[in-house]
Amino acid sequence: MSSSSAAPRRGERAVASGAWPPMREALVAAAFQLFLERGYERTTVDDIVALAGVGRRSFFRYFPSKEDVVFPDHERCLADMTAFLAAGTVGEEPVRRVCDAARLVLHMYAENPDFSVQRYRLTKRVPGLRAYELSVVWRYERALAAYLRARFAGRRDGTLQADVIAAAVVAAHNNALRSWLRSGGTADPGATVDHALASVRAAFGAPDPAPADARPEDVVVVVARRGAPLWRIVQEVESALGRSAD
User: Fold this and answer.
1) Same CATH fold, 73-215 and 18-71?
2) Distance, CA of 35 to CA of 125 (rounded, Å)
3) Which one-letter DSSP state was computed for residue 216?
């Protein structure tokens, strides 16, 4: 989402996700090639369509603006996240659900590490893209908060709790995601994000239920008179536990 100080190599090419339509993929690839070679500000939509070999109308069929070509996959991911949250069951622990929803964003980035790292670097160098990115992050946070508000509707301060937890999930996810992007996309993003989101669940989530076959632990209480020798107390404890004194 943001960017590392290391600049991409000149001529380095970004390849977008193969799940996109070929023309859309060609536009994204052409845009990033030009951004890396000329700079973002000096690249126009006309330059992009000329390199991609399509008309301006084709560009605006897929992207409302030049900024949108830098973030071509967020609309799909936001729709996937919203659908994932809506499919949750009433009995499901809500904090776990929003943490799992945040992992969809990670998956989107991890699908194409090279593209994600190049976007990260580009975004850090262009203030307008950083502002655009913040608006995208805010939409993810609002989707998580809307789900939690509905689940916490009967709670005192439910809206406050929903907003705080949503912000914590986004902050934890983005902290881990940026760490992965700064590594050049070479580390394990799943383990890093899981660790970050575990801290959110520990702070706000309900504990996992014990397994159905789990038995409560025995508690042994030994009463001894003051001044009893230690060996005698140990003998009493071992006797209560069914062990013979050694």
Assistant:
1) no
2) 11
3) P
CATH of 73-215, one of 3.30.420.40, 1.10.357.10, 1.10.10.10, 3.30.300.30: 1.10.357.10
Helices then strands, counting H and E runs in the chain, come out as 11, 0
Could you report the per-residue pLDDT of 166-191, keeping only the tens digit for each? 999 999 999 999 999 999 988 888 99
Which among 137, 162, 139 has a CA at the least distance from the CA of 149? Answer: 162
Looking at 3.30.360.10, 3.65.10.10, 1.10.10.60, 1.10.3980.10, the CATH number of the domain 18-71 comes to 1.10.10.60
Q: What is the dihedral of CA 89, 92, 94, 95, to 10 degrees?
A: -140
Both structure tokens of 46: 């006309």
Residues 217-242 pLDDT 10s: 666 676 767 777 766 666 676 676 66
pTM attached to this predicted model = 0.72
The CA distance from 131 to 147, in Å, is 25
Q: What is the pLDDT of residue 228?
A: 72
